[in-house]
Write a structure and sequence with these properties.
Largest sheet: 3 strands, antiparallel
Oligomer: single chain
Strand order of the largest sheet: 1-2-3
Shape: globular
Number of helices: 14
Length: about 325
């Protein structure tokens, strides 16, 4: 397999030597949106899912509730936290290929798009956190940081050149290119299965209510943990640690810890900082399914706020990785 870069067109593609078949990022079928145009497809689905979440309240059953709770963990923890974020974006640990792909499929059930666009957006956020170029900084407004950036503009519609720059590691993987284009397929399959098993209540809770609750949990990391909370590290942005955001996002709320040490697979650094995503990674490690797990430890006697390491220092242990500047920015 060969990663191909076309300087004239700006396309990155994958070419198999045996078949000579080219799969390019342009196959994803997205172009950069305007700076201020409404993303009507995204906005329409957001409205429909929120209406469905409210309607789910009229179809409550305990079985449907527990199905939703389980899928909330599958999509939010296994998928977004352990998969998209700590594995694909920051490469805080390594797994066998099949585990990486499984976590990626779980993440698509969160309705947050495919891995290539999600990872590119998050790497851009770290590179420009709370500065010009940050896709979702509260400096542009609290509501903008929470959801406005998704509904308006180009933050989730990067062009081919941007993708090639920020996600070259994923762009050369056929599966990640394919699942990014068809990220909605697992959700459709899940919806059909839920309807077959439990009828309308399972669909309303397992798809609509669960998804909307999970979306806001993720969005709170973008908004709330750059506004309210405590700061253990003096980072170059306004990231904070928030215990309540951590509870609803499986540990992603320890955001100041994360921005200080972005490659660390563990975000809850103190014993009292509950980090369910880290517990999941630790479990994979004990099962032999995760290796090269990068973590940091707090000093025995901290003295006030600590300075965060520079980006190059933050990637200790993975400096040999040519993509380290992307995963730690």
């Amino acid at each position: 397999m060969l990663l191909v870069w076309d300087r004239t067109s700006g396309n990155t593609g994958i070419q198999t030597r045996a078949q000579g078949h080219m799969m390019t990022l342009t196959d994803l079928g997205k172009e950069s949106a305007g700076d201020s145009g409404i993303n009507w497809i995204t906005a329409t689905f957001m409205v429909l899912f929120h209406v469905g979440a409210v309607a789910a309240l009229f179809f409550f059953t305990w079985n449907a509730f527990f199905v939703a709770l389980f899928l909330y963990w599958v999509a939010g923890s296994l998928g977004i936290g352990m998969g998209y974020h700590r594995l694909l974006t920051h490469r805080g640990y390594k797994t066998p290929e099949w585990v990486e792909y499984f976590l990626t499929v779980c993440a698509t059930l969160a309705l947050e798009g495919g891995p290539i666009f999600w990872v590119a957006t998050h790497r851009i956020h770290h590179k420009h956190s709370d500065k010009e170029g940050d896709p979702h900084s509260p400096r542009d407004g609290k509501w903008w940081a929470h959801v406005g950036w998704i509904l308006v503009g180009k933050s989730m519609h990067h062009d081919t050149e941007t993708l090639a720059r920020y996600v070259p590691d994923l762009a050369k993987d056929k599966f990640h290119v394919w699942i990014t284009k068809y990220h909605y397929v697992p959700m459709i399959v899940l919806g059909v299965a839920l309807f077959a098993i439990g009828g309308v209540p399972f669909v309303m809770w397992g798809i609509f209510f669960r998804t909307v609750f999970g979306l806001h949990s993720t969005w709170l990391v973008n908004s709330a943990t750059h506004i309210w909370g405590s700061r253990r590290f003096e980072t170059r942005d306004e990231s904070t640690n928030s215990w309540w955001v951590a509870l609803v996002s499986f540990g992603e709320g320890w955001h100041n810890n994360h921005h200080a040490h972005p490659v660390s697979a563990r975000h809850g650094l103190a014993w009292y900082e509950v980090d369910l995503n880290w517990y999941g990674i630790w479990t994979l490690q004990k099962l032999g399914l995760a290796r090269k797990v990068y973590t940091i430890k707090l000093p025995a006697k901290p003295h006030g706020n600590e300075s965060a390491p520079d980006a190059d220092v933050a990637v200790a242990g993975v400096a040999a990785d040519p993509q380290s500047d992307l995963v730690s920015a």
